[in-house]
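Late entry, written up from scratch paper. The run itself happened at the end of the previous shift, but nothing got recorded in the book at the time, so transcribing now.
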Amino acid sequence: MAEPRSPQLITRLIDGRIRSYALTADASGVLEPAAVFRPVAGDEAVGAAVAADLQQAVYATLNAVVCVSDAGDVLWRVAFDPYTDEPHGHRPGCVLSRDGQVV
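Output as recorded:
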């Protein structure tokens, strides 16, 4: 017997928040987010991914990758060097592995 498939998650950055939508075979019409995460104040997320269990999100800024919990706590942050405050052709992004262990 085949194991049931979990819904496909689609993540979007909308109005400064990370919103994750669970797509199922019977999904139709306007989707409501399954989870919403808020980046740390002052961070401008340019790419994001949400874990399959909807408990944490990872987002990229021009200068770091940050992981936040569903409660809004920073779990970890890794800075990019050298620091820049101007976008010069790079647009960092992030993707999670299926098991959520690798960004």
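The chain is about 0% helix and 35% strand.
(Scratch paper discarded after transcription.)
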